[in-house]
Design goal:
Length: about 500
């Protein structure tokens, strides 16, 4: 059944607070489902800062194309590709360069190749590991014994460090797995929940007992479309846009602004449900400066601690649960160099640094090796990661100090000399949620309490994944839940299922 044409009094008023990727995706999906149901919606998107997209952005510095945040996304999670298709920009997607689909890891101050077929937590092929200088003879023997380690019998959440030590031994954790995973989550492996971040490895243990056996029995799982000699992340599954990740943000913004009101540099100071009923939620949105607006529904697409601040007066327990999600800070220093000034061959997508190496950087991404068009001919663009949960003190450095630190590390590790063409520091203060042991249960509590508040949804990278597709999916599912609830509570008989 199709809804009758809406009059102004019929229109559903919704506020999306936060115009990062999740907030934009939520706003876009709300407009989509409302249009499909022929239902009027007055949508306002609030952004406290001067630009949309959160940490995602693309800049041109001379002839270099520089990403300020994520430079790509994984495609086996379908939500980013699906959104690109609906926005009409799927043809702008480009894959990683097959030539360099491998990684390096630092070993006693020198780069060593991650063994072919080693993907984050497990080797698909044992022989490359045995030939690698990364592990000692003792470490290789212990890793090989994983084939005979019994499966775990209980279902309690387990840290990454505990899981890897139990199955592969401490040396494999310290020398290979911690730096590979740390490059994704910037977390302490002793606290990182495997259930919340990489549950497929738990499933492998349950189904096959041995992860080595699981990887060998499923070539598609081990290769990940990355090629026979890939190592590190499953690089063949990654993609980006020819002109950078801002293409996605710009397309989303343009589409949303066709039908919604985007209010930039407008900070929301408080939310209030006083006087609301189940049938008419009536969320009061108080802006910084005192202006109050009323909406039928609200999506908070903010860091968990910021959502907690807004919800403290409505539900103190929900706010406390949200504050239970810790965050880490980090920085990316992007530099451009002449290839002739770099001693290392840079024949990979990047280098990861084990914490036991006691360096002052986490990883270096060779950005112009991953995707074309990132650096001019004869140049290379490097993205160096600093800080994270294990080195938070480094975020206290000034920009100049951080650039100096990075240049010193690049010179010592990769033989980078001469003056850089440019150096840009991008800081992410309390931007990376830490999925600690117990995260899945904590999010279940958060979602249960959120469901008690009609007309409220949460979205963002704090709950079910930190990657680009995860953020899109979080925003879109929040929008779909909110719309479905409104169809019930507002008795909108014309809404489609």
């Amino acid at each position: 059944m199709t809804a009758p044409e809406s009059t102004p009094s019929d229109r559903w008023r919704v506020a999306v607070i936060g115009a990062g990727l999740s907030g934009l995706a939520a706003a876009h999906r709300l407009l989509e489902v409302a249009a499909e149901a022929d239902r009027g919606v007055d949508l306002t998107l609030f952004e406290a800062g001067p630009q949309v997209g959160g940490s995602i952005g693309t800049r041109r510095i001379g002839e270099y194309l520089v990403e300020t945040g994520a430079d790509s996304f994984i495609t086996n999670k379908p939500w980013a590709v699906d959104l690109s298709r609906r926005l009409g920009i799927e043809d702008r997607l480009i894959p990683t360069d097959e030539t360099y689909r491998r990684s390096w890891v630092l070993r006693n101050g020198k780069p060593a190749r991650v063994p072919d077929g080693f993907t984050l937590l497990a080797p698909a092929k044992v022989w490359p590991v045995l030939r690698s200088p990364i592990l000692s003879v003792r470490g290789k023997l212990r890793l090989g014994l994983e084939y005979f380690v019994p499966r775990r019998t209980d279902n309690a959440d387990e840290s990454l460090a505990s899981f890897v030590r139990r199955r592969f031994g401490r040396e494999a954790l310290d020398r290979l797995i911690q730096p590979l995973v740390g490059g994704i989550y910037t977390s302490d492996p002793k606290k990182l929940s495997l259930q919340a971040t990489m549950p497929r490895f738990i499933d492998m243990e349950r189904q096959h007992r041995s992860l080595i056996r699981a990887m060998r029995s499923n070539p598609a799982e081990s290769a990940g479309s990355s090629g026979a000699h890939a190592s590190g992340a499953r690089y063949g599954l990654f993609a980006t846009f020819a002109g950078g990740m801002s293409e996605l943000i710009d397309a989303l913004k343009d589409r949303v602004c066709e039908s919604a009101n985007l209010r930039m540099e407008t900070k929301v100071a408080a939310l209030d449900r006083s006087g609301a009923t189940d049938a008419a939620p009536g969320w009061k949105v108080t802006l910084e400066g005192g202006e109050i607006e009323t909406y039928d529904a609200v999506i908070l697409a903010l860091p968990a601690y910021r959502s907690a601040d807004l919800l403290a007066g409505t539900d103190a327990q929900l706010a406390d649960n949200l504050r239970g999600i810790e965050y880490a800070s980090s920085a990316i220093v992007v530099t451009g160099h002449k290839l002739a000034d770099v001693a290392h061959q840079l024949d990979a997508f990047g280098l990861v640094i084990p914490a036991i190496e006691q360096r002052k950087i986490l990883a270096v991404s060779f950005a112009s090796r991953k995707f074309p068009g990132r650096a001019p001919e004869g140049r290379v663009e490097l993205r160096t990661f600093v800080g994270g949960a294990l080195q938070p003190e480094l975020l206290e450095c000034s920009d100049d100090e951080m650039v100096s630190l990075v240049r010193s590390e690049l010179q010592a590790i990769l033989g980078v000399s001469g003056e850089a063409d440019f150096a840009a520091v991008n800081r992410y203060v309390r931007a990376m949620p830490q999925y600690h042991v117990g995260h899945v249960a904590l999010v279940e509590q958060i979602e249960k309490r959120t469901a008690d508040h009609h007309g409220l949804e949460l979205a963002g990278n704090a709950y079910h994944g930190v990657g680009v597709p995860d953020c899109i999916h979080s925003g879109e599912t929040a929008a779909e839940r909110l719309f479905a609830e409104s169809c019930r509570t507002l008795s909108a008989s014309g809404c489609k299922d």
